[in-house]
Structures are given as structure tokens and as C-alpha cells.
Amino acid sequence: MSDNRLGREAHNETSNLSLGKTTEAQQHFNVEQAHVDSGQDLEKTDNGFFDHTTPSLPQESSTSPTKAAESRPDATYPEGGLQGWLVVLGSFSGMLASFGQMNAMGWIFSIYVFLAFGCGLQIGPIFDRKGPRWLVFAGSVCLLLGMIGVSESTKFWHFILTFSVLGGVGTSLIFTPAVGAIAHYFSRRRGIAVGSASTAGSLGGIIYPLALQSLFPQIGFAWSVRLLALIFLILLVIANLLIRTRLPPKAGGNVWPDFRIFGNVTFALTTAGIFLLEWGLFVPLSYISSYALANGVSLAFSYQLLAVLNAGSVFGRGIPGYVADKLGRFNTMIATLLLCLVSVLGIWLNVGGNIAGLCVFAVLFGFASGSNISLTPVCVGQLCEPEVFGRWYGTCYTVVSIGYVFLLPGKPP
């Protein structure tokens, strides 16, 4: 009797244990099934239980027509910090010397602008592989030698060699690394970062013409240009010290141009759009002083119109950059181009020699056209990774630069 009772108890205990294991196994199966249904991966641990992990997302290639540069987590970009904003300051200093000189001129040699943007075809890939140090240094030497040469120039071909060739190549060697380095530190805030740095060109377009106009009667042309070269030297020292990259070169890259990137349809269309954009924007920028002179405006004020236009461009480079980070880079670019169209068709075509009307046009068009320098690098950077930004941006503007040869005057009007 006692043995039977003990046997039944042992049987019941075994049944309960088996039932418990079955229930536990069923719970594990349910958990596993739930994770499978939700699309999560399961990993089996040492104790036989399953744990779940979030599935990894596929990486976008650099030729994807989407925001490849922004596919990475924001944590990979400092989005500022001391080092990031010091790079912006260095880029600002470099552009204040290079693009400030370009914007200060009442006329622009087509060779200068062609080289300033066209050399990026080779400079961009070198920047991606080797970094900015030697490029910025070489650009500084070219720019300073060019300014010293301009101060000694007496014939037209002298200005071609000094201002156009040396100045154009020097500008390209500085500008491409200056913009590319910012892309290593900013992603979500890249618009405001590039916009802040690019305001330097417009500030130079305000300061330099007014300073030279005042200095020419006092110390003459040669010493005025030499004084400007001294200012450039200080600015370029700052640029050489502060412009730095953060990300290592992309594996498998090289320093040679690669036109296969035009296989990316979005990039090809963006390049075509920027080509047409620059063709339209550089007409008022290049001829506004000549237009004012032809309509009876004094020589002094015609020259000062460039400063008025660049004053509007200061805000047109900074503000759209901030807006672009909020509303979209391409969206903001389209809006500023529409404003350019309104200012040209609604004001410039009807203003004639009216000084007030010319000032209104200069400020409005300057604001709207400022995005051509501040937003185009950000739009191109949205299509590629920062490690190859130099190649993509340089290649884009090499195509764009071809239009300057036919659009701009080869000699001053």
C-alpha cells in the first residue's frame, strides 16, 4: 500500500516536471515566433534561451541617388564642437582671401573663373586621398605670388598670367579643400556650416573694393595691391593652420578623376542644373557695373554697386544654409533661384539708370544668388559619402566651369 502510494507520487512529480518543461519550451517558442514575425533576428545564448537583436540595415553605396552621406548615424559626425568650428573658421579665412578677391573685381577674367572651378577635377580626388594640408599650402603660394605679380603688371598678358592663371589655380587649391573639410565634421548642420564659411567671399566683395577705391589715390595701384597681399598672407596662415579632415581615405580610392560617377543619374542631373544655374547667375554678377555705366551712372557708384550686391549676398549665404538644414537643401535652392528670376525680370529689366532701383536689385539679387556658393556643395554632398566629396564636387564644377569660358569677358569692359 505504501509502495503504491510512493509510486503514484513519483509519477505525479515526473508528470509535473515534464509539463513544466513543455510549458517553458512553449513560451520560448512563442517568444521566438513573435520576434520572427516582427522582423528581428534571434541569437541563441549559452543557456539555451533566445535573445533578439535589431537587424542591420543595408549600407547605401556612394552612387545611390539618395542621401548617402546622411545614411550614417548622426553620432559619426561631431556636428560642430571646437574642432569642427575651427575648421569652419579656417575655411572662412581661406575663402576671404580667394573668393573675396574674385568678388572684389568689377570685371572677371573668364580664364580665372574657369581655373578656379575647373581644376577641382584633379584637386578633389587628391584631397580625398591625401588631405588638405599641401593643397592649401600650394594654393596660398599661388595666390600670394599672383597678387605680387598683379602689383607689377603693366600689360594685358601680365594680368592674364598673374591674376587669371596663378590666382585661378590658387583659388581652386584653397576652395575645394575648404569646403570638403567641413563635410567631415557636419551632416545635419552642413548647410549652416558651409553657409557661414562662404559668407567670407561676400564680405571680401564689400571690404576690398571700398578699400582699394580709397587707397588708389593715396598710395597708388602697386602698393594698394601689395597691402591687399599682406592681408591675404595673414588670412592664409590661419587657413593653413585650421583646415583639417577627420575621416580616413576611402579604401580602394585613387587620385585620378573618374567620370563613371555620372552613372548616378541624380548626380548627372544635379550637375546639369548647376551648369545652367551658374550660366544665369554670373550674367548680372559680371555685368552689373557695366550696365550701370551704360545707363549714365557715375563710375564711382557703378563700382560700388558690387559692394551693395555682396552685402545682400552675405545674408544670402548664411540664412539659406540654416533654412536648408530644416526644409531641405534642394528645396531651398529652388526657392532662391525663383527669387533670382523675380528680381531680374521684375526689377533689373525695367530699372535703367535709376539709382534706387539698381540698389534694390543689387540687394535682392545678391541675397538670392548667394546660395550658388553656399548650397551647391551641400546638395552635391547629399549624394555621396564625405570621404569622396572632393571627387564628386570637383568633377561637378569642372563641367560647370566650361560655361565660364563662353559666358564671361576675356578682358575688362
Which structural traits does this protein have?
mainly alpha; two-stranded antiparallel ribbon; 2 strands; globular; disordered N terminus
In words, what does this structure look like?
There is one protein chain. The longest helix has 53 residues, at 190-242. Helices cover 74% and strands 2% of the residues. Strand 1 and strand 2 form a beta hairpin. It is built from 14 helices and two strands, in the order αββααααααααααααα. Residues 1-75 have low confidence and may be disordered. It has a two-stranded antiparallel ribbon. 46% of the residues are buried. It has 413 residues and is an all-alpha fold. The termini are far apart. Helix 4 packs antiparallel against helix 14 (389-407).
User: What is the alpha-carbon Rg in Å?
Assistant: 30 Å
Give the % helix.
Answer: over 70%
Largest sheet: 2 strands, antiparallel
| Structure class | mainly alpha
Summarize, please.
The chain is mainly α and 413 residues long.
Layout of strands and helices, then pairs:
Blueprint (H helix, E strand, L loop, with lengths): L1 H36 L3 E4 L5 E4 L27 H24 L5 H9 L1 H11 L2 H20 L3 H27 L7 H53 L22 H30 L4 H29 L1 H23 L3 H15 L1 H4 L1 H6 L7 H19 L6
Antiparallel strand pairs: 1-2
Helix pairs in contact: 2-6, 2-7, 3-6, 3-14, 4-6, 4-14, 5-6, 5-7, 7-9, 8-9, 8-14, 9-10, 9-11, 10-11
